[in-house]
Amino acid sequence: MDHPPVIDIRNLRHAYKNHVAVADVTFTVGRGSIHGFVGPNGAGKTTTLKVLATLLPPQTGTVLAFGKDIVRERNDVRQKIGYMPDHFSMYRQMTVFEYLDFFGAAYGMNQAQRDKTIGDVLALTDMAGRKDDFVQGLSRGMQQRVSLARVLVHDPDLLLLDEPASGLDPRARIELMEILQELKRLGKTIFISSHILSELAELCDSVTILDRGAVKYTGTMRGLIVGEKSGDAFAITLAAEHPPLVSALSALPGITRVQQPVNGDARYTVEFDPATLTPNAILQAALASGASITSFQEDVKHLNQAFMDLTEPGVRA
Amino acid sequence: MLTKLRPIFALFVRSLREQSRAKFTPLARGSLALLLLFFIAGNEQNFTRYSAPGQQVLIMVVMVNFFAIAIFGLSTFASAITEEKEEDTLGLLQMTRLNPLAILLGKSTARLCEGLLLLAVQVPFTMLCITLGGVSLEQVLRCYAILAAFLFFLCNVALLWSVICRRTSRATSMTVLTGFILYVLPLFMVSIAMASMFRGGRPAGWLESFAQTWIGINPAFDLVKAIEPRGAMPFATDSLTPSLGGGVIFFSLAWLLFKPCCNSSGETVPQSPKKSAATAGRRISRRRPGKRAIAWKDFHFLGGGMRGLLIRAAVYVAMALLFVWWLATIVRSSMRTRDVGVMFWIFGLLCFSVEFGLVSARMFAAERKRKTLGVLCTLPLGTGRIIREKILGALPQLIPSATLTITGLVMIFGGADGRRWDDVGFTPEFIAGLFLAVSAYIFFAVLVMYLSLRMRRAPFATGLCVVFVLWIIIVFTLDGHHSSNDAVAQMLTISVLTWFATLLIAARIPHRIAITAAAE
Q1: pLDDT > 90: percent of chain B
Q2: Degrees, nearest 5: CA angle B197-B203-B208
Q3: A277 partner at 20 to 30 Å CA-CA among A241, B14, B306, B459?
Q4: Closest CA of chain B from A57, distance in Å
Q5: A115 touches chain B (CB under 8 A)
Q6: Which residues are B187's β-sheet partners?
Q7: Which of B288, B370, B382 has its CB closest to that of A101?
């Protein structure tokens, strides 16, 4: 039996007085995936996240989480989501354990359940050794871990994370990404808003790019970085230009296009039909032509480039 | 020259610009002007009943202003620097070209200017008192000069504590303590010394001169003198110079202590693990949260838990006993149980009223400050339950003052020398009055709760001023009706109107919570 998408947003619109933050947003997020939510400042990401977190009601359109309407079945949805805002929202005079214990109790868990879950989430976030420390005494990275532990304490199926890596040092970021990978393995769906595109490219299965309140792209990460090509594409970089390579490759069945170097960088791009030709065959043909190959890799756009192509320059009016 | 001064006044000018753009500023000035016109119109109707109606209006206006300055001054000026410390933004300010003087001017003096402008806007309207009779132009100007000097003094006392303390609550407490030591404590000391000297029959020249000086520099007494002059008075009244001089001294101290007390390097230093663990060890003995987790959190972390309750109870009892001892010394006779009960009741009710307002103000203000309202609102509980649990968590904080009040009542009516319950006479007036008082308390709590969701500063002070002004308006409206039935009918009508207003405001609170949570 097919499960409904974990997030199903259709024609969402939200305005603050005269300022339309989200104009017409439609996308879905599948179960058990990590979905990146990207956009320039003021694109409407946080507004969309707040709607998903049930903090803002959608003015028009429908928003479903696990097939449930986030307005009509708000409390059911809240039980299944964990929301981490883009700022620290912590009771700093509590200890880490008290903080998690409070939220566990507020979600209706009994003491035994709380003890077990808090132990698990502290172990997952590597904070077990600091459970009796006061939140206010923790570093920024550790507070972020405690925030993540708080989000997980009631075992939600969907995590809504707004800029979870902002302000963290490189090590803390990498560790956070590892925790998120682990959570994905545990079956959680993670909806993550971030500006750090390189990390999202490695982490996410799918992505939605938002600009000026409208969706510019929604789909798989691969679809975004490969772009609109007729088939697969590979780039062959040589030590020096080698004209016979073009004729050798063009002679292969299934080749749709061979692009010659444009900037004198000896980089050839080959587009082909994957049903009739394999990358292995292309590489063998290139070697047979006598070319001195320095690299052979799939021709994909960098996420930064894809992002720049899809979004408009300048600040939103 | 101007270029050199520009950085010093940069923050000051920005604050003034922000104030001029804020909605609150014209609203407050307009409300004040309307209130004054209301007072004058009210007195104009009773023109024939008073010998000096202008003086009556001036007394009322001065009373409202003095009260507002004391309340608003504490809540507004004490947070001038501490709010930056609490948000960890003082370091950012210090990193700019702004020196301590510029920060002090920008954060505190701009607020002082707003207060002074609020006073200045009233002067033309208050001058209408002169036409009503019983008061001269010089008296009006003298009163406003005393009030302005008092505002200047209070602003700088609060500024000094705001520089020294880390938290606004501590700065406010220290400002209150300073005011108590300067203005109230001498009253007790002088009265005790006078009483003991009267017993011994010795001359008390030094004491009399001290009492005279102290009464002179106290703005409250000085205002009384200014309104009812006995003979010619110089424009520079007794309290004017000490208030202005004291203000300058406190500002200078704040400036001097700014660098040593506002070292931003301490803002983000994590608590040492040793200290953290030690304190945590003390806390682990606390009971764990149950089904009412929010109530548990507020009871322990907002109200201080059982320890906070015991400390408050001990402080209240000690202060009440001190008050009783003071009165016994003054009247030079042993106090009866009933008299002690009256003291306990008055003191308990005063503490209860103040705590009632503070608890209502802190309930949501604390969540707003920490930006935790959004996370609370994503709990699967619903806004109604969050509000109920927050009220449940806050109520125990009122136990010590409520117990003191009830103890006072029991001593009044239960002692051998006390009055009997039957003496009270549960007349319709008594019941209507009680109902009105309860309605007013609940209205005040709901209003302060709502204001704490709308205002960043001074919801308690604003709520108190609104209730105070409404009370004065009601007293004016009721003036002249003496029939018992009329009084009962009026009190019941006002109670019903109060409940109507309470329900209207209460209905807006869940909506306001949702807006505030979403805006974090």
Answers
A1: 25
A2: 80
A3: A241
A4: 10
A5: no
A6: none
A7: B288
Q: What is the pLDDT of residues B82-100, one digit of tens each?
A: 888 877 777 777 777 778 8
Both tokens of residue A37? 């939510």
User: ipTM of the predicted structure?
Assistant: 0.80
* Closest C-alpha to B450, from B388, B366, B513: B513
Do the chains contact at B294 and A106, CB–CB below 8 Å? yes
Of the listed ranges A73-82, A222-231, B212-221, the least confidently predicted one is A222-231
CB contacts of B385 in chain A (<8 Å) are none
Who's near B470: CB < 8 A, 6+ residues apart? none
For B250-278, b where at least 16 C-beta lie within 10 A, e where not — what string? Answer: bbebbbeebeebbebeebeeebeeeebee
Q: Which residue of B has its CA nearest to A73?
A: B380
Mean pLDDT value across residues B387-401: 93
Give the residue from B286, B377, B378 with the most A CB atoms within 10 Å of its CB, the best one to mutate. B378
Considering only the beta carbons, identify the residue of A85, A105, A108 that sits closest to B375.
Answer: A85
How far apart are the C-alpha atoms of B270 and A96, rounded to whole Å?
14
What pairs with residue A62 in β-bridges?
Answer: A10
Place of tokens 């003095």: B66
How far is Cα B448 from Cα B363, in angstroms, rounded to an integer? 10
Chain B hits for A146, CB-CB cut-off 8 Å, are: none
Q: State the CB neighbour count (10 A cutoff) for residue B225.
A: 18
Please, which pLDDT band fits residue B32 given cuts at 50, 70 and 90?
confident
CA nearest to A54, candidates B139, B8, B130, B514: B514
Q: What CA–CA distance (Å, rounded) separates B455 from B364?
A: 11
Amino acid at A41: N
* Residue A55 touches chain B, beta carbons under 8 Å: yes
CA distance A159 to A186: 12
Task: Check CB contact of B372 with chain A, cutoff 8 Å.
Answer: yes
How far A236 CA lies from chain B's nearest CA (Å)? 50
Chain-chain contact of B381 with A55 (C-beta, under 8 angstroms): no
Question: How would you write B457-495 as a 3-class SS string?
Answer: CCHHHHHHHHHHHHHHHHHHHHCCCCCHHHHHHHHHHHH
pLDDT at A105 over 90: yes
* Residue A178 contacts B, CB cutoff 8 Å: no
The rounded radius of gyration (Å) of the Cα atoms in chain A is: 24
- Residues A233-266: pLDDT tens digits? 888 888 888 888 888 888 888 888 888 887 777 8
Tokens coding B267: 């803002």
The DSSP letter of residue A92 is T
Record: contact B291-A108, CB cut-off 8 A: yes
Cα angle B283, B285, B286 (rounded to 5 degrees) comes to 75
| Phi-psi label, residue B250: left if phi above 0, alpha if psi -120 to 50, beta otherwise | alpha
A-facing residues of B in 489-518 (CB < 8 A) are: 514, 517-518
Element (H, E) at B256: helix B240-261
Beta bridge partners of A268: A236
Residue B518: which of A50, A98, A102 has the nearest Cβ?
A50
Separation of alpha carbons A5 and A33, rounded Å? 11
Query: Residue A62 gets which letter from DSSP?
Result: E
Minimal CA separation from B372 to chain A, in Å: 5
Q: Which among A56, A101, A132 is the nearest to B280, CB-wise?
A: A132
**From residue B157, how far is each of B40, B183, B464 by CA, in Å?**
34, 13, 22
A89 and B289: CB-CB below 8 Å? no
Q: Is-contact B416 B337, C-beta < 8 A?
A: yes
- B372/A56 Cβ within 8 A: no
